[in-house]
Specification:
The protein has a domain of 78 residues. It has twelve helices and six strands. β5 and β6 form a beta hairpin. α4 runs parallel beside α6. The chain is globular, with a radius of gyration of 18 Å.
Length: 218
């Protein structure tokens, strides 16, 4: 262990630097990407909101906005969504969507299709509203995905879905079609994980590992 002295990275040392580290790591290369996923584990800080504002105003691809990208927009203002240059997909769970849409979680759970469609029309984004079933809305078009399992109700599952969705979009699918495909397959992978391991045991990495089986099941 002596060889590793001083090499331990402590969470409290990294957390304040994490949003800046993400931006620094990506640099200008991120603007050349066909699709980029933002927000997972970034921290809903003013610094990250400033990055999201600049990014949405400059980026010309498709942005998947998840987690703290959505939380930052909820806290500091949604104007960047309307002033953006890129196409955008937002992937909130009900609590994130309630903050983003300025309503309550109970209202979101009572009218997910109507509220997702209304938000999509107002901001011109594709909405992927995640719950025990997932609503995908793009303008007047709406799809409901019913694959999935309680095994997906684990930390990191939403992050993994956002990454899988971004990769699916980057393959050349439209935002709406990519969201339908990614949600269906990720939910199917969750079902396979639950069948093999039970609903309690699987984590996000177990679900990711079963994506090939989900794809092969088509």
């Amino acid at each position: 262990m002596k060889d590793f002295e001083g090499a331990v990275i402590r969470a409290e040392e990294i957390k304040p630097l994490f949003p800046a580290a993400i931006v620094s790591e990506c640099g200008e290369a991120i603007y050349a990407a066909d699709c980029a996923a933002l927000g997972m584990g970034a921290g809903a800080t003013e610094e990250y909101y400033a990055f999201c504002t600049e990014f949405l105003g400059r980026y010309a691809g498709i942005a998947v906005l998840d987690a703290d990208a959505l939380n930052a927009l909820s806290v500091y203002g949604k104007e960047p969504l309307k002033r953006r240059r890129c196409r955008a997909v937002v992937t909130p769970h009900p609590k994130e969507f309630a903050r983003l849409a300025g309503t309550s979680v109970s209202a979101v759970l009572a009218s997910p299709v109507e509220l997702a469609r209304a938000f999509s029309l107002e901001y011109g984004v594709t909405v992927v509203l995640k719950s025990h079933f997932t609503v995908i809305a793009e303008g007047e078009r709406v799809a409901v995905n019913t694959t999935g399992s309680p095994a997906l109700a684990k930390g990191g599952s939403g992050d993994a879905l956002a990454g899988f969705l971004a990769g699916t979009i980057a393959r050349g699918l439209s935002s709406f079609d990519a969201a339908r495909a990614a949600c269906y397959l990720f939910g199917r992978a969750g079902e396979i994980a639950a069948r093999e391991m039970g609903e309690y045991a699987p984590d996000a990495t177990d679900v990711i590992a079963r994506l090939p089986a989900a794809i092969m099941s088509l």
